[in-house]
Specification:
Length: 409
């Protein structure tokens, strides 16, 4: 390993065993000053112990930022305007958090005069790519330290030995083999590894932390209303809420009704397949609601174009290209489409399911006068359909006649 010439590094620090070991390893290996940065993205954990552990390890500059509102308003909501799903299912809860963490890390590095940043992502996963693409996009000359690709602590045993040698506190449940790893924020929780590595085996109920079993959800449906303005949710049941507070409320409703569970085998950007169990209760409700309001406010061709671009947009986020010019271009198109996406959607939540049961908007393109099966009072001349069909059938008829002449049917 060739050690970089580093004077000061900003570490993305959770306070857990891995990043605590990384903190001390950086001090020992690089003999540099380490600044820690811990982001509160709504992971639901007490962050005080992270500060205490950093202080115990001699860190003088400690940043702990509450980024929940920024996370939802500037990252989650723009993504949901696109109805983004990776490989048709994954709501990108981990993917969308990484660019914000990286952005704040770079801001802190510039503020404190650091010449390097470090993260705790492994060399097998997607997060290393997401962090580092973001770093380079925001500060092209930044030095990056990725300990999992550099050090010799290649096993859990060696990691624990290093922790003990350096008086790093080890939680009792970390001494054995952890059953699985968890990443969480206000949008979702993600569980991977260990007992989840065999995709043929159903995930144990202990994996699920944010939702009750659908079978245990109430036998009576919960009906809610979500108000949208220009594509973003602004109120639940008539009560206006800040972005983070609104998502928290939807999470509560989703949890109580067993909504948002996903057991997925996905294709990582680095090339391998992995199995993950995700819980996105509020996001699952929000996706259904947003598509519901778009169904009456978006022009057909605009909606179809947007849907055709969504897989590419989702893939960009999954692969770590949030700060790329192509994502920004797609975002501009998506945001333009949302100018008239305002109104109210009513939904029914019942035992793991979300159903849209009503939608209304001052910008609605739905015309009951035109679509009715009753007398439309001349709003639509059904005879016009004959010419429309004949014109669209012209190429089919010509092709069929040519096929007969060529011996094909």
């Amino acid at each position: 390993m060739q050690v970089k010439d580093v004077k000061k590094v900003v570490l993305a620090y959770s306070g857990g065993l891995d990043t605590s070991v990384i903190l001390r390893w950086l001090q020992v290996t690089y003999r540099c000053e380490v600044v820690t940065f811990t982001a509160d993205l709504g992971q639901g954990e007490e962050l005080g112990p992270a500060r205490q552990k950093a202080e115990m390890l001699g860190v003088k500059e400690i940043f702990m930022d509450d980024l929940r509102e920024t996370f939802v308003s500037d990252f989650v909501f723009p993504m949901f305007r696109a109805n983004a799903l990776y490989e048709g299912q994954y709501l990108l809860g981990t993917s969308i958090a990484r660019p914000l963490i990286a952005q704040r890390q770079i801001e802190i590095a510039e503020q404190v005069g650091a010449d390097a940043v470090a993260h705790g992502a492994t060399g097998k996963g997607n997060d290393q790519v997401r962090f580092e693409l973001s770093y380079y996009a925001l500060k092209p000359d930044i030095k990056i330290i990725a300990p999992w690709r550099e050090w010799e602590l290649t096993s859990r045993t060696r990691l624990l030995e290093f922790a003990e040698q350096n008086q790093i506190p080890i939680a009792k449940d970390k001494r054995g083999e952890a059953p699985f790893s968890v990443d969480a924020n206000l949008l979702h929780s993600s569980s991977e590894g260990k007992i989840l590595e065999d995709p043929a085996v159903e995930a144990d109920e202990i994996v699920y932390q944010r939702t009750i079993r659908p079978e245990d959800a109430p036998d009576r449906a919960t009906v809610i209303a979500i108000d949208f303005e220009r594509g973003d949710p602004v109120a639940v049941d008539g009560m206006r809420l800040s972005p983070a507070t609104l998502l928290t409320r939807l999470n509560e409703l989703g949890r109580a009704n067993g909504i948002g569970r996903l057991d997925l085998v996905e294709n990582r950007f680095v090339g391998m397949k992995s199995r993950g169990v995700y819980e996105t209760p509020g996001g699952t409700i929000l996706l259904a609601a947003h598509r519901g309001i778009e169904s009456i406010t978006l022009d057909r061709e605009a909606a179809h174009l947007k849907d055709s671009l969504m897989p590419r947009y989702a893939e960009l986020i999954y692969n770590g290209f949030w700060f790329s010019p192509e994502r920004r271009m797609l975002q501009a198109l998506i945001d333009e489409s949302q100018n008239s996406v305002s109104g109210r959607v009513r939904l029914k939540l019942y035992k793991g399911n979300v159903s849209v049961i009503g939608r209304e908007s001052p910008h609605s393109l739905y015309s009951q006068d035109v679509v009715t099966f009753e007398d439309d009072q001349g709003a639509y001349d059904q005879f016009d359909a004959q010419g429309f069909i004949k014109l669209n059938a012209l190429r089919l008829r010509l092709g069929a006649m040519a096929g007969r002449r060529g011996g094909r049917l």
